[in-house]
Amino acid sequence: MVYFIKLDGGLAMQLRAITLAALGGLLLISGLPLGADTLIENVQGYTWRENGLHTFQALRFDQNGRIVATYDNATIPDAPTLQRIDGAGATLIPGLVDAHGHVLMLGHARTRADLVGTRSRAEAVARVADYARQNPDVPWILGRGWNQVLWQDNRFPQAADLDELAESRPIWLGRIDGHAAWANTAAMTAAGISNTTPDPHGGRILRDADGSATGVFVDAATALIDRVVPPPTADQDRRALSAALTELASVGLTSVHDAGIDLRTAKLYRELGAANRLPIRVYAMLSEEVYRDFGEPMTDDGTGFLAIQSVKVYLDGALGSRGAAMIEPYSDKPGEHGLLFKKTDQFAQLVGDASKRGFQVNAHAIGDAANQVALDGFAAKDARSELRHRIEHAQVIRISDIPRFAKLGVIASMQPTHAGSDKNMAKDRIGADRILGAYAWRTLLDTGAVLAAGSDFPVEPAEPLYGLHAAVTRQDRNDMPAGGWYKDQALQMDEALRVFTLDAAYAARQENQLGTLEPGKRADFVLLDENIFKIPAREIWRAKVRETWVNGVCIYRAED
Known about the structure:
Blueprint: E1 2-8, E2 12-18, E3 25-26, E4 38-49, E5 52-61, E6 67-71, E7 83-86, E8 91-94, E9 96-101, H1 103-109, E10 113-114, H2 121-134, E11 141-146, H3 159-163, E12 171-175, E13 180-183, H4 185-190, E14 203-207, E15 213-219, H5 223-226, H6 234-250, E16 253-261, H7 263-274, E17 281-287, H8 291-294, E18 306-314, H9 344-356, E19 360-365, H10 368-378, E20 390-393, H11 403-408, E21 411-414, H12 416-422, H13 426-434, H14 441-446, E22 451-453, H15 464-473, H16 493-499, H17 502-506, E23 525-528, E24 545-550, E25 553-558
Parallel strand pairs: 4-7, 4-8, 9-16, 10-11, 11-12, 16-17, 17-18, 18-19, 19-20, 20-21, 21-22
Antiparallel strand pairs: 1-2, 3-25, 4-5, 5-6, 8-23, 12-13, 13-15, 14-15, 23-24, 24-25
Helix pairs in contact: 1-6, 6-7, 9-10, 12-15
């Protein structure tokens, strides 16, 4: 158990305890007296200015957690009142922002069956069996992370695979992308699922040749079983949020955009914020079903730790489960177009209503049909472009639609590590022509669009250095494929850093306070053990976070 202090505008200090049982690091207090500026020197510093990337060797911030100045070695002041910290040659960059993650899901994932990375159906079932043995008292066996694309036969699992465990408890396992789930017969029985249960709007129950439900539910169909799963308690959710935010701090994130929360989670965030128990900044998106009941947007310009002023809207599913909505049929499944959840007029009406209430709209769109609907909806006269609406994922875009992002001022909120994970199936799904408008970071940037980068954790690892590596190399962490996957869409290192810092802050309307280390902005920054601008690009993901600072306070320090 360790303690840290968070400064509240330099006027008050709130002491609290945080447990970091599962982390290889410590959450710390700075231990410096109030009233004096702090200087971190002997660093290799990088930040953005109006004229581009700027380097420095020392960073100064005041007791209120605001940047005072950056210096090169020749201009460092010799002021006796400065509290000086030796950076020991570390690389210092602005605090990293994940523009799309799922915080509560990450927290709960740490206590459930983990199927991420399983290479076969048998391995996935074996992990479920291990979890069941170790957790004999849980009423439902829950887990996530399977991906049939990684299995040799590339076939969706079935309830029969889980029934072989002879487990009487219901088993319910989410796919890696969260857009499909796998049930055993006990779970389907508990939910009243029969072979005659119809597919809900926006969802699909996978069936065999006889029309019998196989045990896999896609997109909206997952709600048929979700509704009977015992919900976690408020205390379990609170602990999951806190654990996840602490984990995010340990990988160098100083801010996260939580992509889709309900009213209960919003209430928990407000409680944690009021008690000064948010270690990093949270920009939360309300689910479309609840935003009308939330009231006025809870705005923040980056001086505080919590903003709830946007709405997450789903327009389609995911590519891996063929739920992404495509204009033309899937290349590997003729006649199948995916699942489009809203027509253009429906989405435009929602955009107008949310905009009228002052909410930014962040539309999940993966297929080219869904991206087209999103752009058409944002082009409607009531959209209020100053709210900086976003398309989350923007994964497969019709080439002719790409310039519309910049024209409409719509932000492309994209996740670089998805390219490395999807490269094995994306071209099979959509073919050689449409792939040219997929994961098209460079093309979007060159047309003037703003990109905000994230990870989509826990679909992908939360480590932002993994995302920086993927953005620059277009490779996975095994250096595959050689030369990079459609390498012409890669970013330069300075561009990659910008989309994870300044542009991600811009996507939350917080760029005047966050994203760079300029005078007057908040002292959110990260110290790394390697200079990511100088090491080989393929090594970027191996760099380690030494320290994470938020508002001028060290909230994480790695153990030696």
